[in-house]
Design a protein that fits this description.
Blueprint (H helix, E strand, L loop, with lengths): L24 E4 L4 H9 L5 E6 L2 E7 H7 L20 E3 L4 H8 L6 E6 L2 E7 H27 L4 H11 L9 H12 L9 E8 L2 H8 L1 H16 L7 E6 L2 E7 L3 H17 L10 E8 L5 H17 L5 E3 L3
Parallel strand pairs: 1-2, 4-5, 10-11
Antiparallel strand pairs: 2-3, 5-6, 7-9, 7-10, 8-9
């Protein structure tokens, strides 16, 4: 059962959608299908978890059972033969934003939520979208209008000009102007939707020596390859731009700073381990900070830049954080 909840945001933990009375059935995979059918018929649950040696291995839904009942002889077969796999669980502490981002790339329709290794709820993917839409819609609408206003000022000609003005020519990602416009729009929300924002600033270590040693064509190739690598390491909802030269910025929305710190270190490690086509090895240093409501962009970047300076001073190829 889904609990009646207070207004939710992207940062709301998915576990809060379930109340303490939610009952989820568990059956060993070798139990015959008839037993599961009897359980679902006498309970409000529309799905049960299939286990093996007490570990969840799959989910059996009403649709799975109806499919199995096309042949009544199936009721005596093991439940595991009809379960939907794979089974993927989400920790109750994950934000709804992170869950929604992840399930867009999945093939299964049921979302299983666990807390302290115990499953506390099962919800249909479409039901989650429907449940969140009404309350997240103002924020989604705001962000849509923000991009729409940037890209559709007057007509097709203006759109082309605006795209050119807000796109970095070399790498194809956004530039400083686009970031400033988006940042201003986000800041106008303030605390209204409880959306924690973080700025991740990073640059390539010893980039000048790369240009001096190998030439600017190699330097440009490194920048373009780096952008592709980082782009694959972040979500579609994250704003990734080239701030200038070899310096880049990412605007991220997560529930707490340590999650962003972990993501930043994953990006750092991925760059460090990547074999670039031209000079083989490249590293980056990262500065992270959280963003206060209505805070001027200058003070945000000053703090992120301070964290980045610490990363350089600490030997480079590291992530440092500077909180307000």
């Amino acid at each position: 059962m889904i609990t009646e909840i207070t207004p939710i945001t992207h940062a709301t933990q998915v576990g809060t959608l379930f109340d303490e009375n939610y009952v989820c059935g568990f059956f060993d995979g070798d139990v015959i299908l008839q037993k599961v059918l009897e359980y679902i018929a006498s309970n409000t649950s529309d799905a049960v978890i299939i286990t093996k040696k007490s570990s969840a291995i799959g989910i059996l839904t009403q649709k799975d059972i109806l499919r199995a009942l096309c042949n009544f002889d199936n009721t005596g077969l093991p439940a595991k033969d009809f379960m939907t796999s794979p089974l993927h669980t989400y920790d109750a502490s994950m934000s709804i934003s992170d869950v929604l981002d992840d399930i867009d790339d999945t093939v299964y329709n049921k979302i299983i939520v666990k807390k302290d290794k115990h499953i506390i709820g099962v919800i249909d993917k479409r039901e989650l979208h429907s449940l969140c839409y009404a309350q997240l819609n103002p924020l989604v609408k705001h962000e849509y209008n923000m991009i729409h206003s940037l890209m559709g000022l007057v007509g097709e000609g203006e759109r082309g000009l605006l795209k050119m003005a807000t796109t970095d020519v070399l790498t194809g990602i956004g530039n400083r102007r686009l970031f400033e416009e988006i940042m201003q729009a986000h800041q106008s929300l303030g605390n209204k939707y409880d959306v924690p924002l973080f700025l991740l600033l990073f640059d390539i270590d010893n980039f000048k020596s790369i240009n001096d040693t190998f030439g600017h064509n190699v330097g440009d190739s490194v920048l373009k390859e780096l952008v592709v690598l980082v782009g694959k390491s972040i979500r579609k909802s994250d704003i990734f731009i080239r701030w200038g030269g070899e310096e880049f910025a990412i605007l991220l929305r997560y529930s707490e700073p340590m999650t962003v710190m972990k993501i930043a270190d994953q990006i750092r490690s991925r760059i460090d381990k990547n074999s670039f086509k031209t000079i083989v090895h490249v590293t980056c240093s990262f500065g992270l900070t959280s963003i206060l409501p209505h805070e001027p962009l200058e003070s945000i970047f000053e703090r992120a830049d301070k964290a980045l300076y610490r990363a350089k001073s600490d030997g480079k190829n590291v992530v440092r954080m500077e909180l307000p």
